[in-house]
Amino acid sequence: MIQLLVINDRNVQAGIQSIDGYEFEVTVADSPLQAFNSIIHISPDAIALNMTNPGMDGEQVLMRIRNMQASKYVPVLLFISPEDENDYRHRLESDKLTDYFVVPVGNGEVLGWAAKATGAASAEQRKTVLVVDDDPVVLDLMKLYLGAKYKVLAMNSAADALAKLKLVTPDIILLDIAMPDMDGKELFRQIRAIESCAEIPILFQTGMAGINTVRECVKLGAAGFVIKPIQKPVLLERIEETLYPPEKDSNTNHKVFVCEEFDFLYTLIHGYLKDDYEVRRGEAVMQTINEIDEFLPGYMIIDFDNSAYILSRIREKTEQFKIPVILLSRDPMSSAVLAELNKPNTYLTQLPMTKESLLETMKNVKEWR
Fold first, then answer.
1. Mean pLDDT for the chain?
2. Distance CA 5, CA 14 (A)
3. N or C: where does the chain have the smaller number of CB atoms within 10 Å of the terminal CB?
4. What predicted TM-score, i.e. pTM, was given to this entire model?
5. Cα dihedral sign, 123-127-133-135
6. 242 in a domain, yes or no?
7. CA distances from 47 to 22, 34, 42, 122, 275 (A)
C-alpha cells in the first residue's frame, strides 16, 4: 500500500483508496506542524504539497521536508498556479525527486503520479519479501516501508519462517540475525537446505553488535546486510540492488562507495554515475568501514574537505587500503591533499566538478579487482 501525505489541500480524499490495481492510504495535513508530525509517524512514500495557499509558506515547508531524515529522498508533487509554471519548470529541471502540477489538480491525477513516482507495482506485479524478526514494531515498520512496492510476509519466529518457506517462495528474505529461538547462522543454513530456497537472496538485519556474525553469514552466501536502526531509503536501495543487480562487464568492478555527509554532493555523484555504476553511500565512520567490507567497491569517492576524518580510519584497514580512492577537494594544492596524493591508489577530482571531470579521473584509476 502506498502511503501518500497531502499537505494543505482538501481536493484529495483522505483514507484508503484503490485505482488501477494500486492501493493507497492517504493522509491529509492542514498545517505544517501536522505535516511534519505525519512524516515522522507514517514515513510517507510520496508527498503532495499545495503551494498556492497564501496562508502557508510552501517554500519553507518544502525546505523542511528535504531536511528531515524521513523525507529527504521522498518524491514530492507541488500544486502550483499557472503564473508560476515557467519558474518551477526551470527550477526543477535537474531535480529528479520533485515534480509539479498546475492547479486545479484532481484526485486521480495525484494518485496516478504517486504510483509512478514511487515505482509502485500493482498487486499482480509485486515481488514478495519475507521479513523475519521477533520484534513486532520492526515487522510493522517493514510493512510500512516496503508495502508500496512489495508484497510483505511478516514472520516473528524462526520456526514460523521455516514453515512458511515450505509453502511459499519469496523473491528475497530479510532476516534478523538475533532471533531468540534460533541462531542466525543456523537459521540461514536451514533456509538454504529447503530446495526452493537455495538461491533466494537473503539480507540480514543487525545492530552493530551482530556485525561479525553477519560477516560470517555473508561468507556462507548471504547477499549482504542492513544496519539497524534501518533507514527507509537505505533499505529500499539495498533490496533493489539485490533483486536487480546491474549487468556489468565481468572484468570490471563497477561498484562505487561514496563517503559524503552532504546530500547535495552525493545526489550529484549518484546522478553522474548511476547509469554505469552501482553506487552506495556511507556517512558514519563505523557504518562506512563495515559496509566497505561487505560491498567490496572498485572505487571510493571521499569528500576530503568535509569527510577527511573517515579516510584515516579506512587507511588503517589493509584490504580497504588497496581500493582506489578519489578525493574531492576545492583546494587541490593544500598540504593535506598533496600528502594524501603521495599515497598509493589515491586520485583527485577538483571541486566544483562536472560529470566529465569525475569520469575522466575514474578512467585513470587502476582498479583494485
1. 82
2. 9
3. C
4. 0.53
5. negative
6. no
7. 16, 13, 11, 20, 26
First to last CA, the chain: 41
| Cα–Cα distance, 45 to 289 (Å, whole number) | 29
**Burial class, 309, CB count within 10 angstroms (exposed 0-12 / middle 13-18 / buried 19+):** exposed
Domain of residue 220, residue span: 127-236
Q: What is the CATH classification number for the domain harbouring 134?
A: 3.40.50.2300
Q: Considering only CA atoms, which of 48, 28, 192, 165 is closest in space to residue 111?
A: 48
The mean-pLDDT minimum among 108-112, 189-193, 233-237, 349-353 falls in 233-237
Q: Which helix (H) or strand (E) holds 109?
A: helix 107-117
Is the separation of the CB atoms in 191 and 165 below 8 Å?
yes
Last residue of a domain, one of 117, 136, 161: 117
What is the number of structural domains in the chain? 3
Q: Each residue of 32-76: pLDDT tens digit? A: 999 999 888 888 889 999 999 888 899 999 999 988 877 877 889
Q: Check whether residue 96 and residue 27 sit in a common domain.
A: yes
Above pLDDT 90, what percent of the chain? 23
Q: Match 528531515 to its residue by C-alpha cell.
A: 68
Q: Is residue 122 part of a domain?
A: no
DSSP per-residue letters across 238-259? HHHHHHS-----TTS--EEEEE
Q: Which of 147, 184, 186, 154 is nearest to 170 (CA)?
A: 154
DSSP readout, 287-299?
HHHHHHHHH--SE
C-alpha cell at 248: 556489468
Largest pairwise CA distance in the chain: 63
Rounded to an integer, what is the distance from CA 149 to the centroid of its chain?
A: 13
CA–chain centroid gap for 100, Å, is 23
